Amino acid sequence: GDIVQYTDITEYTATSFTEANRTIADIDTIVIHHWGNDGQRFEDVCNFFAGGPGTSAHFVVESGRCAQLVEFKDIAWHAGNWAANQRSIGIECRPEMSNEDFETVAQVIADLETYYGKSFYVHGHRDFFNTACPGRWYDQLDRLIDRVNAIKEGKVERGVENVPAPLDKAEVSALRASWEKLQNAVDELGKEIDHA
User: Fold this and answer.
1) Helices 99-116 and 141-157, axial angle in degrees (round to 10)
2) How far is CA 104 from CA 85, 97, 172, in A?
3) Burial group, residue 154, by CB count within 10 angstroms (0-12, 13-18, 19+)
4) 56 Cβ contact list (under 8 Å, min separation 6)
């Protein structure tokens, strides 16, 4: 398939995040978000996070553009849950989800996995928190993972070193179970707070 070239944008920096010294060993999941209503501009979303709204993401991505706002070693405030934030990378995607948006997000994930030599579990914000996010992306997460893996296969064919194998079914099941446990803990806590 055609490779969409995208531009890495570094001029925006989020202000709401937690400084940490995470290594890639601490991170096992990418959480996909969308930035809410259709019709918003990429720059406005980046500026919103740079303005310190009490929320952030590592990346903001649309067709042909990827802005990194928080370093991987640091914890972005994106999942609505601390334990989830600690072990994940947050990617904010364009809600319209054009084919080019989709292709760029897949490319970014494939590049991250290749750079770090590690395959991540990809999952939607609403798996984890009571929200409509990531909107249209949610039903396409399996297709997104398939596309990431196809891009990685293409890299292997071109002789790129260090491309990690896709997560196998057992690993995906284990990760899914551990996230469900987190989710259940959040639900239990919610019930306790409601009855407080």
Assistant:
1) 60
2) 23, 10, 23
3) middle
4) 14, 15, 16, 17, 49, 69, 70, 76, 77, 78, 90
For residue 182, give both structure tokens.
Answer: 């987190």
Least confident window among 15-19, 57-61, 86-90, 188-192: 188-192
Q: How many other CB atoms sit within 10 Å of the CB of residue 129?
A: 16
Whether the model pTM is above 0.85: yes
CA 38, distance to chain mean position in Å, is: 19
Residue 191 pLDDT greater than 90, yes or no: no
Beta bridge partners of 187: none
CA angle 169, 182, 127 (to 5 degrees): 65
Alpha-carbon gap, residue 112 to 47, rounded angstroms:
24
Q: Are 67 and 46 within 8 A, CB to CB?
A: yes
Strands 17-18 and 75-76: antiparallel
* HSE-up (13 A, CA, CB side) for residue 148: 26
Task: State the sign of the Cα–Cα–Cα–Cα dihedral 58, 62, 63, 66.
Answer: negative
